[in-house]
Amino acid sequence: MGGQSPRPAIFGHDGGQTPAVPVSDGYRGDYPRLVAVRVVRYQAETWGTGELWLEDGKPVWHELPRPNAHAPEGRHPIADRLRAYFAGEPDSFADVELELDEETDFGRSLATALREVPRGEVVTYGELAALAGRPRAARAAGSFCARNRFPIFVPCHRVVAAGTLGPFGSLGQDYKRRLLALEGIAL
Q1: Which CATH class is domain 105-182?
Q2: Residue-by-residue DSSP string for 34-80
Q3: Residues 147, 25: contact at Cβ < 8 Å?
Q4: Predicted local confidence at residue 102, as pLDDT
Q5: What is the pLDDT of residues 123-143, one digit of tens each?
């Protein structure tokens, strides 16, 4: 992912326990649907606190761990796996079902292709576009990574620019480099 996409706006809640968030990328001209989600905050040693937003146990949003974020709150098996991942334990997360209905066909193809890039390997934006069936769509692949709401599950940190590391949004290249080093890649 190109860092962190803008966090979803909270439209309503039931005493703070179940926020309602819009789930739509807005690219298809439809209105976002509101979903009730459960937010689990997990502590990743030396990384900070991350957030996992779940609807019926399925991730709808993931915030990468950051220092000085909210305190950990709640438990969930996927959050436990993320905590282990950030401690260096290999996990492809391939079995984690993601809400990709709001993506375009090409966006879903990019997500599928990227989830198949193994830990310890990187691809360029052009290579990712080709893996997804549109070899001339490197910029579109970059835009997809910049708005990826499922970092680690759809590992955009494994996508690099031709000849350089490439961007990683607000978290920056040092964070991207650190994620790659966690997976055994030195760039």
Answers
A1: mainly alpha
A2: EEE-EEEEEEETTTEEEEEEEETTEEEEEEEEETT-PPPB---HHHH
A3: yes
A4: 86
A5: 999 999 999 999 999 999 999
Residue 105: exposed, middle, or buried by beta-carbon count in 10 A (0-12, 13-18, 19+)?
Answer: exposed
Task: Let me know: does 59 contact 98? Beta carbons within 8 Å.
Answer: yes
Q: How many Å apart are CA 23 and CA 55, to the nearest integer?
A: 11
15 token code pair: 């005493």
**Among all residues, which ones are annotated catalytic?**
156
- Give the per-residue pLDDT at 47: 96
- Taking the CA atoms of residue 60, residue 113, residue 165 and residue 176 in that order, the dihedral angle to the nearest 10 degrees is 30
Query: pLDDT category, 25, cuts 50, 70, 90?
Result: very low
Report d(CA 84, CA 91) in Å as an integer.
8
Tokens representing 137? 């769509």
pLDDT of 111 reads 98
**Of the candidates 55, 84, 56, 85, which has an alpha carbon nearest to the alpha carbon of residue 149?**
55
Torsion of CA 32, 35, 38, 39, to 10 degrees: 10
CA dist 11 and 124 (Å) reads: 37
Q: Which two tokens stand for residue 120?
A: 């310890």
Number of other residues whose CB lies within 10 A of the CB of residue 151: 24
Residue 157 structure tokens: 């940190």
How do the domains of the chain map onto residue ranges?
Answer: 105-182
